[in-house]
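BUG: 3D viewer hangs when loading the predicted structure for this chain

Environment: internal workstation, default settings.
Expected: structure renders.
Actual: progress bar stalls at 90%.

Input used:
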Amino acid sequence: MKNKIPIVFLVLLAFPFGKTEAQLQLTEPEAIELALQYHPSVKAAALQSRQADVLKGSAADWPAARLFQHTAADPDFGLFGTVSFGVQQDFPSVKMTRANRLYYERLKARSAAFASLTRQEVIRQVREIYHHLSYLEAKKKLFTSLDSVYNAVAQTAQLRYETGETSLAEKLASEDRAGQIALAAQTVSHEIEFDRLVLAQLLGVEQEVEPIVEPIHEATFSLEDTSRLSSATWAALYRSEVALAQAEYEKQAASLAPAFSTSVFGQYLGNGDWYPGWEIGVNIPIAKKSLNARKDAAQVGVEAAKAQYQQAYLQKKNALAHLLHEQEKYQISVRYYHEKGAGYARELLQNGELNYRLGELSYADFAMMLEQATRIELQYLDDLLGLNQTLIELEVLTAE
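C-alpha cells produced before the viewer hung:
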C-alpha cells in the first residue's frame, strides 16, 4: 500500500503562513515608467483622448427619421378619403458635418495636450520624491556621523566628571546633545519611510517599495531651454483651447446653413386605389435671432480663449524669471560651500573634537564650533535640494 500525503500537509502548502512578497526595488526611471502605466490621472487623460477620437465618427449628425400618417378629406370619398403613410429623413448639412469633424479633431488635439501635461506632472512628482529621498539619505548620513562624534564627546565628559575635571552640568549637556542628534537621525529615518509610502501610493502598488536612490548631487539645466517657453506643452494646451473655441464658432455658423430633407410615402384613396409618392425639401432657418446670438457668443469665446492664453503666457514668463532667480541664488550658495564652506566645516569638526579631548577647549566653545559646522552642512543640503527642485520645475515649465 502506497503512502499518502496527509491532507493537513497539503493545506499548509496551499496556504503558507507569513508574507513572502519581497520589496519592489525601483530606480527613478523604472518608477517613472511604472507611474505612467498605472497612475489614475494618466489613465483618465488617455481615455479622454480616446473618447475624442471615437467622437469623430459622429461628425455627420443625422436627425431621427420621422414616420407620419396623413389624412385628408376628399369630395368624392368623404372626410377620410385620402390617407398617406410615409417616412421623412432630414440630411445633415455638409457645412455642419465639416464643422463637427473639425471640432472633434481639435477636441482630440486638446485631449492629447492635456494627456502630455498630465504625464509631465506625474513625472515631476516621482522625480521630486527621489530627489527628496537623496536629500534625506545625505541628511541621515550627516546625523549618523555627528552621532558618533557627540557620543565620543559624551564619553569624554563622563570620564572628566568622574575625575572631577568638569561639572555635572557639562556632563548632562553633552549627553542631552548626543540624545538630540540621535533623535534627529531617527526622525529623518521616519521621513524616509513616509516618502517610500507616498511613492508606493503614487505608483499604485500595494507592496513595499524600496527606491534605489543616487547620492545627492547638483543637477543641471541649460538656459537655452528657456527659449522653448512658447512651444512648451502647457502652451500647446492653451493653443488647443483657442482652436477648440474657433471650431465651436464654426459649428454655430454652420447651424445657419440650409439642409435637405426627403420623404417617401404611399397614398391610399377611399376607392381602394394605392399610389406611391415622394418629396424633396430644403430646411432653411427663418428665426435666426437665437442662432445668431449663439454664433456671436462663440466668437466671444474665441476672444476669451486667446486672452486666457496671453494671461497664462505672462504668468509662465514671470514664473520662469522667478525660477531662474531661485536657481542662481541656490547655485551661489552651493558654489560657496564647495569653495570655502566644506573645508571650514571639516576644520571645525576635526579641530573641535581633538582640542576638547585634549582639554584645550571648553565644552561650550566646542559645542558652538560643532553647531556652526552642522549649520554649514545642513544649509548645503537644503540649498542643493532647493536647487534640484527648482531645476525640475524649470524642466516641467519648458518641456515640449
